[in-house]
Amino acid sequence: MSDCIFCKVAAGEIPAAIVKRGDGMLAFKDINPQAPTHLLIIPTTHVGSLNETKDAKVLGELVGFARDLARETGIAARGYRVVVNTNPDGGQTVFHLHLHLLGGRPMNWPPG
Ligand code: 5GP
Ligand code: ZN
User: Fold this and answer.
1) Is the predicted pLDDT of residue 1 greater than 70, yes or no?
2) How far is the CA of 87 from the centre of ligand 2 (A)?
């Protein structure tokens, strides 16, 4: 996907604060953080959204990667939130599948 910004991040064509690389996955800091810890976790190959995800194994790996990152960034014990905004009603603005890992402050519920 030549016009996808997260594909460009994965290819190193757009700079990003990379936090961790995994097998087919990448975590980097959100450019507009909504919490003291706000990381984005993406598959390095293009998937448009959760709706387009065909391989549940990939989803499991992404969630496991988020869990590991929560521990490694020191937010696991107090707690955190993993979010997958999907399509316009879900608030998705970048159409390359990504998990938000948010923590470092108490989260509100219900979400806006
Ligand atoms: P969405 O709204 O699609 O769930 O989340 C997209 C996220 O990507 C937003 O939180 C936004 O701040 C972040 N974002 C958009 N463009 C860039 C970028 O070029 N670099 C980084 N690191 N984050 C971005
Ligand atoms: Zn992409």
Assistant:
1) no
2) 15
